[in-house]
């Protein structure tokens, strides 16, 4: 039996299972056990996906229908949305007001370019050569703002990472690196799928949540696990909000309908194998209004503790 420890709280995990999720009995976070590194698995996926889907376009009719049902879902969850948007706006203002910001794992570059066009002194790093190449090609004016690397190398006042932290199998190294290069008021802004379900899990569960994404999502943190990890590295959570994101609900419903391609493509508004007609798509959207999520879209704002 191999010995593993929880990436969040360092509690012992004993399992015979490779390539599966194991839940920590202490903080209840889900750890992915793999024989390969997160860097290897994620770099391979993202280099392939950006090359494979770089020319893929959204289907306008699906965008239109998704937005209609999303508005219905927003109405049904308006209190959670209000709290989430308040924290989102607060985080955006922190980024705008910072003298220098680094986005780690900028991916498609959509948020990075939006802030750059607003005049924010923002830089982006990513492990994907293809992501960096695509950004430089699309935005040659800002080609010096991005670099292919997996670590910070210059000082920054704020760090922003959207859909990155859950991909790491060495979050301790990430947080040590972040703390080393942060200066000033020093904010770490993370947007992650946080494990919020109240259900208990076992190794035999057949997970149907889009965020149990093998092998890319190495860790699904609970609030307890995230708090333990951040405080260990000298960060204090100052604000946090979660939202049961409708996109997660739709992708989960697609998985239940046997549309396995959504696990790779991860956008329900593209053409997905198994979605056979417009009626089928509308049915999926309707059913998604009643889905309970295991993971919620969460913004965590943490500040570096002063010595």
**How many DSSP helices?**
10
Instruction: Summarize the biggest pleated sheet.
Output: 7 strands, mixed
Query: What percentage of the residues does DSSP assign to strands (E)?
Result: 15-25%
C-alpha termini separation: 42 Å
* Arrangement of strands in the largest sheet: 7-6-5-8-9-12-11
Number of strands: 12
Radius of gyration equals 19 Å
| Residues in helices, as a percent range | 25-40%
Shape: globular
- What structural class should be given to the helix and strand makeup? alpha/beta
Q: Give the SSE string.
A: EEEEHHHEHEHEEHEEHEHHHE
Low-confidence stretches: none
If you average the pLDDT, what whole number results?
A: 91
Explain what you see.
With 307 residues, the protein is an alpha/beta fold. It is globular. The strands form 3 sheets. It has a 7-stranded mixed sheet with strand order 7-6-5-8-9-12-11, sandwiched between helices. The protein has a 3-stranded antiparallel sheet with strand order 3-4-10, with no helix packed on it. Helix 1 packs parallel to helix 5, helix 2 (60-76) runs parallel beside helix 10 (278-288) and helix 8 (246-256) packs across helix 10 (278-288). The longest helix is centred in the N-terminal third of the chain and has 20 residues, at 78-97. The chain has helices spanning 38-52, 60-76, 78-97, 110-117, 129-138, 171-181, 223-232, 246-256, 262-265, 278-288, and strands spanning 2-5, 12-15, 20-23, 30-33, 101-104, 122-126, 146-148, 156-162, 182-195, 219-220, 235-243, 295-304. It is built from 10 helices and 12 strands.
């Amino acid at each position: 039996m191999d010995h593993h420890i929880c990436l969040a709280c360092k509690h012992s995990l004993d399992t015979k299972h490779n390539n599966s999720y194991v839940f920590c009995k202490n903080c209840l976070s889900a750890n992915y056990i793999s024989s390969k590194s997160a860097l290897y698995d994620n770099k391979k996926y993202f280099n392939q996906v950006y090359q494979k889907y770089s020319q893929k376009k959204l289907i306008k009719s699906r965008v239109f229908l998704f937005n209609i049902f999303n508005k219905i879902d927003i109405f049904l969850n308006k209190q959670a949305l209000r709290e989430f948007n308040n924290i989102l706006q607060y985080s955006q203002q922190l980024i705008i007001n910072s003298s220098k910001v680094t986005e780690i794992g900028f991916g498609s570059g959509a948020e990075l370019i939006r802030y750059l066009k607003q005049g924010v002194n923002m830089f982006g790093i990513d492990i994907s050569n293809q992501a960096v190449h695509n950004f430089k090609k699309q935005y040659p004016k800002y080609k010096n703002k991005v670099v292919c690397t997996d670590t910070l190398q210059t000082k920054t006042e704020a760090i922003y990472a959207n859909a990155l932290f859950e991909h790491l199998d060495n979050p301790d190294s990430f947080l040590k690196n972040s703390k080393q290069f942060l200066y000033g008021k020093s904010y770490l802004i993370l947007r992650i799928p946080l494990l919020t379900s109240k259900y208990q899990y076992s190794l035999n569960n057949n997970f149907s949540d889009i965020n149990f994404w093998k092998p890319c999502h190495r860790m699904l943190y609970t609030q307890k696990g995230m708090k333990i990890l951040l405080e260990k590295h000298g960060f204090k959570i100052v604000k946090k909000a979660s939202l049961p994101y409708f996109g997660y609900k739709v992708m989960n419903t697609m998985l239940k309908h046997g549309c396995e391609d959504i696990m790779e493509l991860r956008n329900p508004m593209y053409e997905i194998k198994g979605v056979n007609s417009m009626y089928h798509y509308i049915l999926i959207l309707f059913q998604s209004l009643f889905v309970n999520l295991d993971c919620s879209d969460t913004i965590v704002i943490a500040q570096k503790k002063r010595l």
